[in-house]
Request: fold
Amino acid sequence: MVRQTDFMTFIPTRLKAYGTATVFALAAAVHGGAVLGAPKTPAQGDAWRVVSTTHAKAGQEQIATIRFANGFAFTPRLFNPAVIGVLPTGGATPYLVVDGVECTECDATARSVYVGNPRAWPKNFSKDGWAVGYPSRNYSAIRGKLMSWSRVFIGRCLSQNPGVVSFYSVREEKGWSHRADWVEVAGDRLVAHTATPEAQGVPRVVAVAKSVGAGRCREIPAQTTDEGDIG
Reply:
């Protein structure tokens, strides 16, 4: 089924589901996020270009501060964060697409892709944000079989609304299980969806690939990893 997702329950569930070493892998940060499929404007184009990232230690925690061309400083409370996309809104502040690890004491492979309002982050992220695991291809370390894969796209991949689309498949005892999750900006709000392949109107990789070819959308490169022999 396709359903709109409540953020208060969606974020903890998604991070638990995707934030494990057996599913998602540590990937290199990609800097300099860009607005996809939209003309750059002074409010939400060059103004939100990353100009520097600095790191400071606060107790046992490494704090990263990202500064933008408009002078705004952003501290996402993620380990090794990088802005990999900007989703324009109807107001002055866009939503940022950031990759990073939730905490410095977490499994370092539990990298995720986050979407949130930089002026509310991280205080209200669970209320006004979204997250999925970093794209990856995961193989059994013993048998060499592909155990799970995920692909993530940023931009106007499905419609005229900017957003992020995630496809995820995992090998189970009875075969492969698939799902799609996507979020889009509607005015100034984030609207999230999740779906199984049986539902009507589920995004297809082939349709998103056409948007990539048209320059409206781009794919985040996946990381390939080995995992324990689980099947």
Q: What stands out?
A: The chain has two helices and 15 strands. The longest strand covers residues 175-186.
